[in-house]
Specification:
There is one protein chain. The chain is mainly β and 131 residues long. The chain has one domain: Phosphoribosyl-AMP cyclohydrolase (Ubiquitin-like (UB roll), Roll), CATH 3.10.20.810. 14% of the residues lie in helices and 36% in strands. Strands 2-1-6-5 form a four-stranded mixed beta sheet, with helices on one face.
Amino acid sequence: MQMNWLDDVKWDAQGLIPVIAQEVGSNDVLMFAWMNREALQKTAELGRAVYFSRSRGKLWFKGEESGHVQTVHEIRMDCDNDVLLLKVTQLGHTPGIACHTGRHSCFFNLYQNGAWLISEPVLKDPDTIYK
């Protein structure tokens, strides 16, 4: 695999790029994360989402602890080359759980009438997901 395609990405000052994971079929936006060059390269090679954890300072293979792996069908880049979109299948639970809170999507807080409302149920207790 040629590596020059990675040079087309506009990495930020920390060598990262924001990534949105969108579910194939439903088109639900599941989560937002970051990738560095190595994470993007591994995602392309493995066909599964690999992110960069800023808090841990290391690669994060989605599902390595929870089992909620994301199979990657497409990797898209926006017109400015500074945001990525992954089209994924969320594995490990039906319906898929992408959020560490045990919800399908990380975007479950809905603004309505001056307040944030929780719009999605917890599908599985996070205490039973993470050891």
